[in-house]
């Protein structure tokens, strides 16, 4: 029996995938084998007390709310659900491009002020509508920084709306490039993208390299009147620099508001609505749960942000184990030497983390496994 703890409300369609004969939803975090969450902050948790915790699944893409180094140190696999909410975010990007171009939100708010004018409302609307004029997006150029699942959908939708699309992604794979519209222009330097784009949308993770990537220096390279959208992570944009560039940036739309941005006339702050659709919540929950099940029952790892991708088809072995070690360049050889009767094995390494799934023809005691440097954990997935 595995114990599952949720730190946020998770869509029932996902939780219902857990077989009740093998899984129990528990209130006590220190009893959990796995955690599923959305935006709850895990940084302040006492990980020394979470002795049973084997995995954390984020029902979403960003994992800034999870302490990855601490989880890695403890051998806790952290999953996310890339692409599960991509369409929801992409649709919000399209809406925001329109809202940034034509001041429809201000127009709607102004129209509400006409309540009480009765039959005069139509005349007042005609008289006041000129203050809400804005350009069309057809024929304009959109720059997409980050061409993953969301960026690819945005590229297709923008192309269908008659926009020219320029993309930048230093990690773009051939498979990723093939998912883009054929008309997409790919650049290898942001200096080629900034000066020619009427709209720029960000779809990259926040890392030390990308934090504050939109700042006074990058804004200086942008086209006058540019409209900027950020539905990725707040730290990608230096808010103070965007506020100071009101003469350069026509509109900044973001899911990550703060006090200063809320007061800036040229900024639109939304309440983190990127994945707030029932479809996205269902997709993320189902994907998080399926990855958790596959890991707990088979040891397989897909879409982890701190462990290597590692899968092994289930055979007829007497015992299946997973092994995790840190900073061990000889991990594969040491693992093979340490385990007698191996019928199948796969080992993978990502950065400092090495992970193995092993099937044995005869069960052994875990305490008898010796000779693996940097060993963090050995888990018996099953024994027959």
Structure write-up:
There is one protein chain. With 384 residues, the protein is α/β, with parallel strands linked by helices. It has 3 domains: 1-85 and 276-306, NAD(P)-binding Rossmann-like Domain (Rossmann fold); 86-269, NAD(P)-binding Rossmann-like Domain (Rossmann fold, 3-Layer(aba) Sandwich); 308-384, ACT domain (Alpha-Beta Plaits, 2-Layer Sandwich). It has 13 helices and 16 strands. The strands form 3 sheets. It has a 7-stranded parallel beta sheet. A 5-stranded parallel beta sheet has the order 2-1-3-4-5. A 4-stranded antiparallel beta sheet has the order 14-15-13-16, sandwiched between helices. Helix 3 crosses helix 6 (149-160). The radius of gyration is 25 Å and the shape is elongated. 39% of the residues are buried. The model has no long low-confidence stretch (mean pLDDT 96).
Secondary-structure content class: alpha/beta
Number of domains: 3
- Oligomeric state of this protein: single chain
Radius of gyration: 25 Å
Helix run count: 13
- Classified by CATH, the class of the largest domain is Alpha Beta
């Amino acid at each position: 029996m595995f114990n599952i703890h949720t730190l946020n409300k998770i869509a029932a369609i996902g939780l219902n995938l857990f077989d009740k004969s093998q899984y129990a939803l528990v209130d006590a975090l220190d009893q959990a084998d796995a955690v599923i969450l959305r935006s709850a902050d895990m940084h302040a948790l006492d990980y020394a007390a979470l002795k049973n915790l084997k995995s954390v699944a984020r029902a979403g893409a960003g994992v800034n709310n999870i302490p990855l180094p601490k989880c890695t140190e403890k051998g806790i696999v952290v999953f996310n659900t890339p692409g599960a909410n991509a369409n929801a975010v992409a649709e919000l990007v399209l809406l925001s491009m329109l809202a940034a171009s034509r001041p429809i939100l201000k127009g709607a708010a102004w129209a509400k002020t006409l309540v009480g004018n009765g039959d005069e409302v139509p005349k007042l609307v005609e008289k006041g509508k000129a203050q809400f004029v804005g350009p069309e997006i057809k024929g304009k150029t959109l720059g997409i920084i980050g061409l993953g699942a969301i960026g690819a959908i945005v590229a297709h939708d923008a192309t269908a709306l008659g926009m020219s699309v320029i993309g930048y992604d230093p990690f773009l794979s051939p498979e990723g490039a093939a998912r883009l519209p054929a008309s997409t222009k790919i650049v290898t330097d942001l200096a080629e993208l900034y000066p020619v784009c009427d709209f720029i949308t960000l779809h990259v993770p926040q890392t030390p390299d990308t934090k504050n990537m939109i700042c006074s220096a990058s804004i200086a390279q942008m086209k006058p009147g540019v409209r900027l959208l950020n539905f990725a992570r707040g730290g990608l944009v230096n808010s103070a620099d965007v506020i100071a560039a009101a003469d350069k940036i026509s509109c900044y739309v973001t899911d990550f508001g703060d006090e200063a941005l809320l007061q800036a006339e040229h900024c639109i702050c939304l309440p983190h609505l990127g994945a707030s659709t029932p479809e996205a919540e269902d997709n993320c929950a189902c994907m998080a749960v399926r990855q958790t099940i596959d890991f707990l029952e088979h040891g397989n790892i897909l879409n982890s942000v701190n462990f290597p991708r590692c899968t092994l088809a289930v055979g007829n072995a007497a015992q299946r184990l997973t092994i995790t070690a840190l900073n061990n360049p000889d991990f594969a050889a040491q693992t093979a030497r340490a385990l007698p009767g191996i019928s199948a094995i796969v080992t993978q390494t990502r950065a400092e983390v090495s992970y193995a799934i092993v099937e044995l023809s005869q069960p052994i005691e875990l305490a008898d496994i010796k000779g693996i440097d940097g060993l963090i954990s050995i888990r018996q997935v099953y024994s027959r």
